[in-house]
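[Discussion] Sanity-checking designs against the backbone

I'm trying to build intuition for which residues belong where. Below is a C-alpha cell string of 236 positions. I'd appreciate it if someone posts a full sequence so I can compare it with mine line by line.
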C-alpha cells in the first residue's frame, strides 16, 4: 500500500506516453489558516482512506515539456478484499483512473489501475501497477498527531515487475499536518521517487483535509517529474 495512492504516481507512464513528455508539492499553509489545538486520529484517518469506496471526479491543469495541459477524469476506489502480498496475509484494494488530457489541441484518453496491499493491521506492504513496490524496513504511522507534526512513514523499493529482477529506485513517503481551521487540518503526504543512483526523479504530494476523529477528504494532488519537465495539479 501507499499511504495515499496518488493519481500522478499511478499514471506517470501513461501521462508521458500520451502527452509526449513530469518540483514537489508545497507544504505552505494558507495565510488565513488556523492552527488547531485538537488531537487528530491520524491512524484512523489512514484506515478510513484505505477502506472507503468512491468514484470521484477531478480536473487536471499544468504543463508537460512547456506545453499547457488540461483535462478531466474520475478515480474509482474499489472495495477491500483479502489478499496475500509476498507471503504476508492482509488486504488489497484497487484504484482505477480514467481521464482525458488535452495537450497542444490534441485530447488523449489515459487509464491506469493500481492495487495497494496492507497487512491485517492496515500497515502498508506494497503496491502493483505501472511499477511494483515493496515496503522495506519499519513503517511509522502515528496513531495520533498534532498540527505541525511531520515525519517519514516508510520507504519502498520500486521494481519493474513482481519478479523484482530490475530495481528502479526508491519511494520515500513523508507526511506533515498543517493548519486549516480550529477543527480541521491539512494532511500532506509526499512520495519522493529516486533512481538507483539516489537522484530525485519525481515527487507527488496529496493534500487531504482531516477532522479530529479521523474523517478524511481528498482535496488535491501535485505531481512533478524532473526528467520530462512535467508539473501537474489535480483538483477534486
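Best answer:
Here's mine. Compare freely.
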Amino acid at each position: 500500500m501507499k499511504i495515499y495512492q496518488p493519481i500522478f504516481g499511478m499514471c506517470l507512464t501513461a501521462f508521458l506516453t500520451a502527452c509526449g513528455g513530469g518540483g514537489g508539492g508545497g507544504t505552505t499553509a494558507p495565510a488565513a489558516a488556523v492552527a488547531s489545538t485538537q488531537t487528530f486520529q491520524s491512524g484512523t484517518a489512514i484506515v478510513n482512506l484505505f477502506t472507503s469506496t468512491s468514484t470521484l471526479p477531478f480536473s487536471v491543469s499544468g504543463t508537460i515539456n512547456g506545453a499547457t495541459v488540461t483535462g478531466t477524469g474520475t478515480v474509482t476506489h474499489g472495495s477491500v478484499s483479502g489478499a496475500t502480498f509476498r507471503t504476508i496475509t492482509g488486504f488489497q484494494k484497487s484504484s482505477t483512473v480514467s481521464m482525458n488530457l488535452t495537450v497542444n489541441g490534441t485530447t488523449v484518453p489515459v487509464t491506469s489501475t493500481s492495487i495497494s496491499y496492507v497487512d491485517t493491521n492496515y500497515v502498508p506492504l506494497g503496491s502493483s501497477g505501472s511499477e511494483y513496490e515493496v515496503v522495506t524496513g519499519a513503517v511509522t504511522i502515528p496513531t495520533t498527531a498534532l498540527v505541525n507534526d511531520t515525519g517519514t512513514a516508510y520507504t519502498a523499493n520500486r521494481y519493474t515487475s513482481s519478479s523484482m529482477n530490475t530495481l528502479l529506485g526508491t519511494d520515500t513517503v513523508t507526511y506533515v499536518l498543517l493548519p486549516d481551521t480550529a477543527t480541521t487540518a491539512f494532511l500532506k503526504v509526499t512520495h519522493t521517487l529516486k533512481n538507483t543512483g539516489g537522484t530525485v526523479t519525481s515527487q507527488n504530494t496529496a493534500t487531504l483535509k482531516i477532522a479530529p476523529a479521523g474523517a478524511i477528504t481528498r482535496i488535491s494532488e501535485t505531481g512533478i517529474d524532473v526528467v520530462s519537465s512535467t508539473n501537474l495539479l489535480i483538483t477534486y
